[in-house]
Design brief:
Distance between the termini: 26 Å
Low-confidence stretches: none
Strand content: under 5%
Number of domains: 2
Oligomer: single chain
Largest sheet: none
Helix content: 55-70%
């Protein structure tokens, strides 16, 4: 992989990192700092209907799950950036072969080549 390609992937990863950081900030602002009273939009600490309580709880849980997923993706993006800076980007650590550029175009934070990823997903590696 040449320096020009590496720079392009680095920029894509930095853009993705920035997007994830913004999303995580929004989740923090919207869900982690809100109380049940804020979610209900009422002056009392309780919703007017029990179904509203369930909906509010489900929305908070959904936001936490999405934030968790984004946090894990952010960690994966950071690891890919480390590989760029260390010189190991684009090389599968298992088979030591170059990762197909089409795969990196689709998933710029891919750590494994397609064959090794498939083996891992099937539980053979």
């Amino acid at each position: 992989m040449n320096k020009k390609d590496t720079k392009l992937y680095e920029q894509r990863l930095l853009d993705e990192r920035s997007r994830l950081m913004k999303e995580l900030g929004l989740f923090e602002d919207e869900m982690m700092n809100s109380t049940q009273r804020d979610a209900a939009g009422d002056l009392s600490a309780y919703s007017l209907h029990m179904a509203d309580l369930g909906t509010d709880a489900m929305q908070r849980e959904k936001a936490f799950l999405l934030a968790s997923r984004d946090g894990q993706l952010l960690q994966t993006v950071d690891e890919a950036l480390r590989r760029i800076y260390d010189g190991g980007y684009g090389v599968c650590p298992r088979c030591k072969q170059e990762i197909n550029p089409d795969r990196l175009d689709a998933v710029p934070y891919a750590r494994l080549c397609s064959a090794c990823q498939e083996k891992q997903e099937k539980g053979r590696a």
